[in-house]
Amino acid sequence: MTLTEIAQYAGEKIGKTDSDTITFLQKAASLAYRRVWDFAPWRETVTNSTYSVGTSRTITLGTNVETPLSVAYNDAEIDPIDLATIISQDPGLLDDARTGDPDTYHFTGRNSNGVAQLNLYPRLATSGTIPLRVVEKLKCITRTNYIVDFPPSNDALGDELRLPHVHHLVLALTHADALERERQYAKAQAITQGANSDLAGMANYELSQVGGVKQITPQSLGELTIEEMFSA
Fold first, then answer.
1. Contact, 167 vs 10, CB < 8 A?
2. Which of 17, 61, 69, 103 could be joined to 116 by an S-S link, Cβ 3.0–4.6 Å?
3. How remote is the C-alpha of 119 from its chain's centroid?
4. Quick check: helix, strand or coil at residue 133?
């Protein structure tokens, strides 16, 4: 489904499909889709890229990148850090004279063009050939990479959603906005609660299917006591 199709159907559910209502519901659908997109690291929202590393500590990420999730250099993961932690632990990292292989990074947000950037600490003394590998959360996009801004563009409205399994959630949240517009607040609240519950369940299922480090909690220690397990 497209955002326009979702808006049209939500309008039909309340019996209003005039142009003003559809325009409102297109905006509502775009916000609902963005909310679902941001709720979890769905596999369709995550990608990985490589970037050349020069002597500047600043790395500009791709135009469709929302935020970095993990970063590696020279086959080793490097840790995220914020400026306050740098100041408290090692203020010298902020000095451009400090060079070496980067082992931490700071996500600085977006530059004046709206493109995500990160800074590496320390910076390289000379440009290297080893790439920086970044796992990234993408901006909210459609199937053919139109960014869903607010208000949404005509291209984004007419394209299929990138997430193939969330149409009913986006529709439910859009329907709830339509009901609120008609001042049917109780019905809107009930639909929103149902959508929130479904969204949480889908996110839990998604995360359980994606490989990663998981915490295992044993249900039984068998025949051993705690003392026996940790005794010499």
1. no
2. 61
3. 20
4. strand
Report which secondary-structure segment, H or E, holds 14.
helix 3-14
Interval 62-103: pLDDT, tens:
999 999 999 999 999 999 999 999 999 999 999 999 999 999
Structure tokens at 230: 């940790």
**C-alpha–C-alpha distance, residues 22 and 30, integer Å:** 12
Task: Please give the Cα distance from 98 to 104 (Å, whole number).
Answer: 13
How many Å apart are CA 202 and CA 213, to the nearest integer?
19
In 3D space, the residue among 101, 135, 141, 137 whose CA is nearest the CA of residue 121 turns out to be 101
Look at residues 173, 179, 141 and name the one whose alpha carbon lies nearest to residue 15.
179
pTM of the model: 0.82
Q: Which two tokens stand for residue 56?
A: 């500047």
CA 23/CA 59 separation, integer angstroms: 39
- How far is Cα 225 from Cα 223, in angstroms, rounded to an integer? 7
Cis ω before 131 (30° cut-off from 0): no
In 30-161 the beta strands, taken as DSSP E runs, fall at: 46-51, 58-60, 65-73, 76-80, 104-110, 116-121, 132-138
Query: 62 by DSSP, 3-state: which?
Result: coil
